[in-house]
Write a structure and sequence with these properties.
The protein is an all-alpha fold. The protein has a single domain, classed as P1 Nuclease. Helix content is 50%, strand content 3%. It contains 12 helices and 2 strands. Strands 1-2 form a two-stranded antiparallel sheet. Helix 1 crosses helix 12, helix 7 runs antiparallel to helix 12 and helix 8 packs across helix 12. Bound molecules: 2-acetamido-2-deoxy-beta-D-glucopyranose (NAG) (5 copies). One 2-acetamido-2-deoxy-beta-D-glucopyranose binds next to helix 6 and helix 7.
């Protein structure tokens, strides 16, 4: 397996959904470390004032919105349900797996395209102070989905992204999706009770490692596809990388009848989540910096009407 991988989700099954919130926010804060001053200025005009120009603060909005009646349509945008059979066979295909109504790949493409228009509005002075909701939402979705797509179980269809796959972690009866969303990052950060403050040092250390290029795969390889003008191609590359982890690690280990914290499963997953979280942050910053610079000639790849018919199993 070339890429280690993982991160958090939005299929909120656990009661401690603050984990999700905090991990997403922390990815946003990590990304802020790599934004150019120009990009930061653009963002400040797009987000509503209460976010204080911070994509970290805005990064978890998409999960809350998906669980409102108004935002229900966007719930399925948080993942792509691959029709594969890990750990024996892994693959994700856009036309097959991106459901009618959208998936994380089409949503990244659509919202990136909208965000590009919004940045033009900032540049011509017609958008200031977060006054266009379509634009603020586009930025918040892009921020959130570039995090979600690095979580292996957001690019995996079986057992509803692991939500229906019961496991035990640290004595808790839970399921595999929640384990990758929260329990593993929690255990890796070495905090008994996961919170934003306890997670910050862990994430700051990841930022240092990104700067030092101190991962098994060089950061340049994370950015092989990072052109916002080819969003379906890039998002599919990221989804395929996440999906591959479900064969090489997530569903490969023997974890039934064991506690995943004691069995070595969690420890084996730590490098994967560290890498995937770090990729999410650096890609997000690079994506936004590139958009803000304005080099953008959109390819013709269609994302308007995903024709896949993967089974959607809504679990919340
Ligand atoms: C908000 O931005 C969107 C996306 O560019 C655009 O279609 C819409 O017209 C804008 N709304 C206003 C009121 O300017
Ligand atoms: C998984 O756990 C849930 C909640 O405890 C339970 O309702 C469900 O029947 C379990 N599923 C399986 C396949 O054991
Ligand atoms: C989380 O922690 C970061 C870094 O310490 C801080 O800047 C941010 O405001 C915190 N977020 C929340 C929602 O408390
Ligand atoms: C549980 O693990 C055992 C031992 O590896 C394996 O033979 C069995 O198929 C597993 N059962 C399930 C339901 O995954
Ligand atoms: C694209 O985004 C707009 C604005 O959020 C939304 O109304 C539309 O349904 C989206 N289209 C697709 C194909 O995702």
């Amino acid at each position: 397996m070339k890429f280690p991988g993982i991160v958090f989700g939005s299929l909120l099954l656990y009661t401690a959904s603050a984990w999700n919130t905090d991990v997403h926010q922390q990815i946003g804060f990590m990304a802020e470390e790599f934004l150019t001053p120009y990009t930061i200025g653009v963002i400040r005009n797009i987000l509503e004032p209460w976010y204080q120009g911070s994509i970290g603060r805005a990064a978890a909005w998409a999960d809350r919105y998906a669980h409102t009646a108004e935002g229900r349509f966007s719930y399925q945008w948080h993942w792509i349900d691959s029709e594969d059979t890990p750990p024996t066979s892994c693959n994700v295909e856009y036309k097959r797996d991106c459901s009618k109504g959208g998936c994380v790949v089409s949503a990244i493409a659509n919202q990136t395209s909208i965000l590009h228009e919004c940045i033009q509005q900032v540049k011509d002075g017609s958008l200031t102070g977060g006054s266009n909701t379509t634009c603020s939402q586009a930025l918040k979705w892009v921020t959130h989905f570039l995090g979600d797509i690095t979580q292996p179980l957001h690019s995996s269809g079986i057992a509803a992204g692991g939500n229906m796959f019961n496991v035990t972690f640290a004595g808790h009866a839970t399921e595999l999706h929640a384990v990758w969303d929260g329990f593993i990052p929690h255990a890796d950060a070495g905090v008994l009770r996961f919170s934003n403050s306890s997670l910050s040092p862990f994430m700051a250390a990841l930022v240092d490692r990104i700067r030092a290029n101190a991962f098994a795969e060089p950061t340049t390889s994370w950015l092989q596809c990072i052109n916002p003008a080819t969003p379906v191609t890039c998002a599919m590359a990221w989804a395929a990388e996440s999906n591959a982890w479900t064969c090489s690690y997530v569903y490969k280990q023997v974890y039934n009848n064991t506690d995943l914290l004691d069995s070595g499963y969690a420890q084996g997953a730590f490098p994967i989540i560290e890498l995937q979280i770090s990729k999410a942050a650096l890609r997000l910053a690079t994506w936004l910096n590139t958009l803000a610079l304005g080099h953008y000639e959109r390819d013709g790849q269609d994302f308007e009407d995903p024709i896949g018919n993967a089974q959607q199993v809504l679990v919340s």
